Amino acid sequence: MRKAGILNRHLAGALAELGHGDGVLVCDAGMPIPDGPRVVDLAFRAGVPSFAEVLDGLLAELVVEGATAAREVREANPAAATLLDGCFPDLLLVSHERLKELSAGARLVVRTGEARPYANVLLRCGVFF
């Protein structure tokens, strides 16, 4: 048994399969999940686990070279916007509709229990070397 890091076996296994350029959508409980990507659903109850908790855990495990979020997050969810700005200085903002289109190309979707709107980000994996 692992003693640190991501303990969820489905998520840990999915992360180990990612490569350079792969997309990982970290989303709130209400984001429509496209057909195609592997899904690890962590949602337990409204707000559990939170978007911030899951994103923090993923960023401790992944090399991320880019991130895309919906521009609507700025007005509708200032806390998520602040979190994303702190994590990704070069955050790309697109419309929520465009983010949903882009998410269809993700390799992995990690669904949180987040119950605040627009707490979604599409990560682009980098390499450690």
Mind sketching the topology for me?
Elements (H helix, E strand, L loop, with lengths): L8 H8 L6 E5 L10 E4 L9 H9 L4 E7 L2 H4 L1 H10 L4 E3 L1 H8 L4 E4 L9 E5 L4
Q: Which descriptors apply to this entry?
A:
single chain; six-stranded mixed β-sheet; globular
Give an overview in words:
With 129 residues, the protein is α/β, with parallel strands linked by helices. The chain has helices at 9-16, 51-59, 73-76, 78-87, 96-103, and strands spanning 23-27, 38-41, 64-70, 92-94, 108-111, 121-125. A 6-stranded mixed beta sheet has the order 2-5-1-6-3-4. The radius of gyration is 13 Å and the shape is globular. The chain starts with 8 loop residues before the first helix and ends with a strand. The mean pLDDT is 97.
Report the order of strands and helices: HEEHEHHEHEE
Q: Could you say which overall geometry the principal axes of the C-alpha atoms support? A: globular
What gyration radius follows from the Cα positions, in whole Å? Answer: 13 Å
Q: What does the largest sheet look like?
A: 6 strands, mixed
List segments where confidence is low: pLDDT < 50 over at least 5 consecutive residues: none
Helix content: 25-40%
Please tally the β strands and state the result: 6
Structural class: alpha/beta
Provide the residue-averaged pLDDT.
97
**Going across the major beta sheet, what is the strand order?**
2-5-1-6-3-4
Report strand %.
Answer: 15-25%
Helical stretch count?
A: 5
How far from one another are the termini? 28 Å
